[in-house]
Design a protein that fits this description.
Blueprint: H1 3-6, H2 12-19, E1 24-25, E2 27-32, E3 38-43, E4 47-51, E5 54-61, H3 67-73, E6 75-80, H4 86-93, E7 105-107, E8 113-115, E9 120-132, E10 135-147, E11 154-157, E12 160-163, H5 167-175
Antiparallel strand pairs: 1-11, 2-3, 2-6, 4-5, 5-10, 6-9, 7-8, 9-10, 11-12
Length: 178
C-alpha cells in the first residue's frame, strides 16, 4: 500500500462538519508583550498533556498573528471561558481589534493576563512548539493553575456556542431547595 492509498483526502467543509460533532472547550490564551500590553486569542484545542511533568497544549493556525507574540513572550495563560462569556470569545477572536477593550483581568505570577469571570486558568511557560500540518502545537509547562469559579464552561459544538450541565448536578439541584 502506498502513502496515497492510506491517506484519504476530504473536502474541507465535510471535514469541519464531521469534526464539529466533537464538542470543544473555548479557551482564551493570553500573554503580554515586552511593553506589558495584553495579548490574547481564542483556541478550541486546549488539552492536558502530562501530569509528570505537568504540561498542557493547544493548537493554533500557522497564519495566526498572535502566536508570534506568545512565542516571543515564552509564556501563556490558558483561560477556560465561562458560559456567560461568549461576548469575550467573540471579542478575542476579532482580527485587528483591541481584544482587551472592556475586559477585566489580573496579572499572573508569570505576568500573563488571567481573565476575570473564567471557570479556571493554567499559567505556563512554553516548553516546545511543533509544526503539524497547517497548525502549530504549543506545549506549556504548568507553573500555576486554579479553579476560578463554579460557572459552567463555554463549549463550541456544531458551529455554535453553548454550555454544559452535568446530569449529576441536575439531580443534586432538583433535590435542593433554595
Amino acid at each position: 500500500m502506498t502513502d496515497t492509498d492510506s491517506t484519504k483526502l476530504f473536502e474541507a467543509r465535510h471535514l469541519r462538519d464531521v469534526l464539529g460533532n466533537f464538542p470543544t472547550s473555548v479557551v482564551a490564551v493570553t500573554t503580554s508583550d515586552p511593553n506589558d500590553v495584553p495579548v490574547g486569542m481564542v483556541v478550541g484545542s486546549f488539552t492536558s498533556v502530562s501530569l509528570d511533568p505537568p504540561m498542557v497544549s493547544f493548537l493554533v493556525d500557522r497564519s495566526s498573528s498572535t502566536l508570534p507574540k506568545i512565542l516571543a513572550a515564552g509564556r501563556f495563560c490558558a483561560n477556560a471561558l465561562a458560559s456567560d462569556q461568549e461576548w469575550l470569545c467573540r471579542q478575542m477572536a476579532k482580527k485587528g481589534a483591541d481584544r482587551f477593550t472592556g475586559v477585566q483581568w489580573q496579572q499572573s505570577a508569570h505576568a500573563n493576563p488571567i481573565l476575570d469571570g473564567v471557570v479556571a486558568w493554567v499559567d505556563c511557560t512554553i516548553d516546545k512548539t511543533v509544526e503539524l500540518g497547517d497548525h502549530y502545537l504549543v506545549v506549556g509547562l504548568i507553573g500555576d493553575l486554579n479553579v476560578a469559579s463554579v460557572k459552567r464552561p463555554l463549549l463550541f459544538f456544531r458551529g455554535g456556542y453553548g454550555d454544559y450541565t452535568s446530569t449529576a448536578q441536575l439531580l443534586l439541584d432538583s433535590h435542593l431547595r433554595y
